[in-house]
Amino acid sequence: MDSLLQYYYQTTGNYVAIVTTDTLDRNPGDYSTHFAEQQGLTDSKNNYGLILLLSRKQELIYLTGTGQLLRLNEVAPQAQEALQSIIGTGIPYLQEKRTADGVIKICQEAMKFIEKTAKILQEQPKH
């Protein structure tokens, strides 16, 4: 999985990050934002990315955009539905305790989503 994500980043400049935690002591959006800042993934001019946050103890799965994808709700109000759909592709695997398969499926769908969304965002006028 790591090599798949690294290859994607190296070839496109976009990324899908997977963050796992046993506990989550803050809002998932805040946690993801803090992670993106710590990793230097917040330069909105140069990248499109999604962070997949998995918390086993709270059974939380959270997917959020960074970089240019922070503008998702401005451009596509249905973005939250799209992100939920991406997560949904991995749920059957996760329910069967096939975590790696579920995460890979989510990441593959996330990559497709980023590519489509990046094209749409690049066509939008800048604010």
Q: How would you describe this protein?
A:
The protein has helices at 2-12, 28-38, 72-75, 79-95, 99-123; strands at 15-21, 48-55, 60-67. With 127 residues, the protein is α+β, with helices and mostly antiparallel strands. A three-stranded mixed β-sheet has the order 1-2-3, with helices on both faces. The N and C termini lie far apart (36 Å).
Summarize the structure.
With 127 residues, the chain is an alpha+beta fold.
Question: Which labels suit this protein?
Answer:
127 residues, 5 helices, alpha+beta, 3-stranded mixed beta sheet, Diaminopimelate Epimerase, Chain A, domain 1
The biggest beta sheet, please? 3 strands, mixed
Order of helices and strands: HEHEEHHH
Mean model confidence by pLDDT:
79
What shape does the CA trace take? globular
SSE diagram, text form:
Layout (H helix, E strand, L loop, with lengths): L1 H11 L2 E7 L6 H11 L9 E8 L4 E8 L4 H4 L3 H17 L3 H25 L4
Helix pairs in contact: 4-5
